[in-house]
Amino acid sequence: MNYVFVKDSEGYVFKKLVSEVSADEKIISEKEYMKTSGLAYYEKKFAHKDAIQNEPVKVKTAQLCVNPCI
């Protein structure tokens, strides 16, 4: 199954099978699909690629009251 990215006459983008592409749709690149659909922005905003590898995690410990907390 070969999928391609297409743009229709109204500017909407889709991922379709090669056999499903109609004459009025234009085949576009994956990069253009990502940009037009907003997926590139979503990945950039929420992918968290800037996280430091093997960063130690600070564990919050609860302080216990020796005397009853009133």
Give an account of the 3D structure.
The protein has two helices and three strands. Strands 2-1-3 form a three-stranded antiparallel β-sheet, with helices on one face. It has 70 residues and is of the alpha+beta class. Strand 1 (3-7) and strand 2 (13-17) form a beta hairpin.
Report the end-to-end length measured between terminal Cα atoms: 68 Å
Q: Judging from the principal axes of the Cα atoms, what is the shape?
A: elongated
The arrangement of helices and strands along the chain is: EEEHH
Rg, please?
25 Å
Return residue spans where pLDDT drops below 50 for at least 5 consecutive residues.
none
Descriptive tags:
alpha+beta, 23% helix, 70 residues
Summary, kept brief:
This protein is α+β, with helices and mostly antiparallel strands and 70 residues long. The protein has helices at 30-37, 39-46; strands at residues 3-7, 13-17, 26-28.
Task: Please specify the SSE layout and strand pairing.
Layout: E1 3-7, E2 13-17, E3 26-28, H1 30-37, H2 39-46
Antiparallel strand pairs: 1-2, 1-3
